[in-house]
Specification:
heterodimer, A: mainly beta, Immunoglobulin-like, six-stranded mixed beta sheet, three-stranded antiparallel beta sheet, 9 strands, 45% strand, B: mainly beta, seven-stranded mixed beta sheet, four-stranded antiparallel beta sheet, 11 strands, 0% helix, 51% strand, globular, immunoglobulin (chain A), Ig-like_dom_sf (chain A), IG c537_light_IGLV1-44_IGLJ2 (chain A)
């Protein structure tokens, strides 16, 4: 089991808005920032959101992140077929002294 | 182009050893914290190890502590992962990743990964 909890799957139709949740604890999300990664099939992951809600250059503003307490969320608006991928949240964990990831959410665009 | 290229993966028997290398290019390697992240076939991402920019600070996941050692040669722009006493559960793609400046663990550059298979 992963330290951070994500739903295993999510889906939406083109143009819709979908959100993916990430639940943690006081030792990780509760006291550290959250990053999100997108992994397209057969490729290495890519940084999508960092420091809770910051987008690296080149990431469309359709992607947004938020954090509240010990949970975080990734929102994707105007869903597109190319958004079909696995999404992972991650944070530093003070108790484990390391980075912890969520188990990943497979997003399907119907 | 900023790039990380891993090498050294392969098939190894349980109990064996392997050393992974990660060659960095087009950025000032010596200024960045570097990490290893792995992904077992069909599974999620798992953090393995990290090393500070000057090599003075390291930490490893409990699952590899005492068996894996991260190191770097800033003169050669290369990160290493020495893996000893390998187990079947270490089978995974190993990614070398760079932590974005100003963050502890936002991994902004990923290598293509190198596959490690532990099997008899």
């Amino acid at each position: 089991q992963s330290v951070l909890t994500q739903p295993p799957s999510a889906s939406g139709t083109p143009g819709q808005r979908v959100t993916i949740s990430c639940s943690g604890s006081s030792s990780n999300i509760g006291s550290n920032t959250v990053n999100w990664y997108q992994q397209l099939p057969g490729t290495a992951p890519k940084l999508l959101i960092y420091t809770n809600n910051q987008r690296p250059s080149g990431v469309p503003d359709r992607f947004s992140g938020s954090k509240s307490g010990t949970s975080a969320s990734l929102a994707i608006s105007g869903l597109q077929s190319e958004d079909e991928a696995d999404y992972y949240c991650a944070a530093w964990d003070d108790s484990l002294n390391g980075v912890v990831f969520g188990g990943g959410t497979k997003l399907t665009v119907l | 182009e900023v790039q990380l290229v891993e090498s050294g993966g392969g098939l190894v028997q349980p109990g064996g050893s392997l050393r992974l290398s990660c060659a960095a290019s087009a950025f000032t390697f010596s200024s960045y914290w570097m990490h290893w992240v792995r992904q077992a076939p069909g599974k999620g991402l798992v953090w393995v190890s990290r090393m500070s920019s000057d090599g003075s600070t390291t930490s490893h996941a409990d699952s590899v502590k005492g068996r894996f050692t991260i190191s770097r040669d800033n003169a050669k722009n290369t990160l290493y992962l020495q893996m000893n006493s390998l187990r079947a559960e270490d089978t995974a793609v190993y990614y070398c990743v760079r932590a974005k400046t100003g963050t502890r663990n936002a991994f902004d550059i990923w290598g293509q990964g190198t596959m490690v298979t532990v099997s008899s």
